[in-house]
């Protein structure tokens, strides 16, 4: 077992099961192993191209958050990664990947063309009025306005006479 950080797409909705006194919430995510090659200037696929990882969380806020995961959502997770060897029903030796999460987040999808982005300017942006500039009597005081004090970060009056 080792610590890892992965991101993938949920293959189904999260499921919660009871295991004795503890509830276990799990979801399987597809992790893309391809990468962008700068030399070839294209995506390079690895074999296998996609690896399925079963995320699991036990009781608490991580399990509560994981229970919100729905099919197709992007999931970002950190946790204890484990590779489990098993024999399938046909007698073939296989590997299973699972992670007990210590941190999980649901990543918002990028908006498609024509859809509103939460970061885009609102439709009423044309009606927006910028705040009016404040007079010197409001906000910050004028430079050196404190009687008997000078601005310690300001330029000294005799700055032109300073030799370096």
Could you please describe the fold and organization of this structure?
The chain has a domain of 106 residues: Nucleic acid-binding proteins (OB fold (Dihydrolipoamide Acetyltransferase, E2P), Beta Barrel), CATH 2.40.50. The mean pLDDT is 79. Helix content is 4%, strand content 42%. The chain has 164 residues and is mostly beta strands. It has one helix and eight strands. The strands form two sheets. The protein has a five-stranded mixed barrel with strand order 1-3-6-8-7.
Strand count, sense and closure of the main sheet?
5 strands, mixed, barrel
What is the overall number of helices?
A: 1
Name of the CATH superfamily of the domain at 2-107: Nucleic acid-binding proteins
Residue-averaged pLDDT, rounded? 79
The string of secondary-structure elements, in order, is EEEEEEHEE
CATH class category name of the domain at 2-107: Mainly Beta
CATH-assigned fold name of the domain at 2-107: OB fold (Dihydrolipoamide Acetyltransferase, E2P)
Rg to the nearest angstrom?
A: 28 Å
């Amino acid at each position: 077992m080792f610590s890892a950080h992965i991101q993938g797409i949920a293959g189904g909705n999260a499921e919660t099961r009871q295991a004795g006194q503890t509830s276990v919430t799990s979801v399987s995510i597809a992790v893309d192993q391809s990468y962008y090659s700068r030399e070839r200037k294209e995506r390079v696929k690895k074999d296998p191209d996609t690896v399925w990882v079963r995320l699991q969380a036990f009781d608490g806020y991580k399990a509560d958050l994981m229970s919100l995961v729905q099919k197709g959502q992007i999931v970002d997770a950190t946790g204890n990664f484990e590779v489990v060897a098993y024999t399938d029903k046909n007698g073939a030796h296989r590997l299973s990947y699972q992670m007990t999460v210590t941190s999980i987040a649901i990543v918002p999808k990028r908006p498609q063309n024509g859809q509103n982005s939460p970061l885009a300017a609102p439709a009423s942006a044309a009606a927006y009025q910028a705040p009016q500039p404040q007079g010197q009597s409001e906000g910050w005081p004028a430079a050196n306005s404190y009687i008997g004090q000078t601005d310690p970060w300001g330029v000294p009056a005799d700055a032109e006479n300073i030799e370096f």
